[in-house]
Amino acid sequence: MTTAPDRDTALSRLALTRRLVALLRREEAVVAGIGNTNFDLAAAGDRPQNFYMLGSMGLAASIALGVALAQPARRVVALEGDGSLLMNLGCLATIATVAPPNLALIVWDNGAYQITGGQLAATAAGTDLVAVARGAGIARSAWAHDEATFDRLVAAALREPGPALIAARVDAAPGAARPERDPVLLKDRFMRGLGAR
């Protein structure tokens, strides 16, 4: 869908993350942005192919792009919050230009910089990240209005040539778990999970 859902129909970020993990069947790489995005991924299904960002706000999509280019036979998913993506909108144009067919971006839009204190993000005032992604050249960009649509869009992104961007309006629940916080251990485990070490 191209029209942004209403904020009063917010979905559970944790429930959607669990649905994503349930659809991963081929050792897909998942790069999770800072804060609750990676906290929920750790709770939904910690795996060696997960990379948890620490303090690098706005770079999940860029790192996922690098992984997708380095391992073209592997599907790669970037999980990012709306505030983080707003800090690095240029990555959308780069992704559209390079057009890796194995890359999908999933954006959780709660309209706030939740992890830094809940300050309102531009998405709360009308910025539509699906429209921005389409304008940048990512034609396969859509809103997930409900869980069934989310499942369908993710399944297609894991099966069909990308890049693709899926956005969902989500709640502001606290993160469900905390992954390992040692950057060297996270990097080494991820590299082993991708067979790069």
CATH architecture: 3-Layer(aba) Sandwich
In percent, how helical is the residue content?
25-40%
CATH superfamily: Thiamin diphosphate (ThDP)-binding fold, Pyr/PP domains
What is the N-to-C order of secondary-structure elements (H for helix, E for strand)? HEHEHEHHEEEHEHEH
Number of helices: 8
Beta fraction of the residues?
15-25%
Task: Give the CATH topology.
Answer: Rossmann fold
CATH class: Alpha Beta
* Secondary-structure-derived class: alpha/beta
Let me know the largest β-sheet.
6 strands, parallel
| Overall radius of gyration | 15 Å
Q: Would you count the extended β strands for me?
A: 8
Count of individual domains: 1
Q: In what order do the strands lie side by side in the largest sheet?
A: 2-1-3-4-8-7
Q: List low-pLDDT spans.
A: none
Average pLDDT number: 93
Q: So what's the overall shape?
A: globular
N-end to C-end Cα span: 40 Å
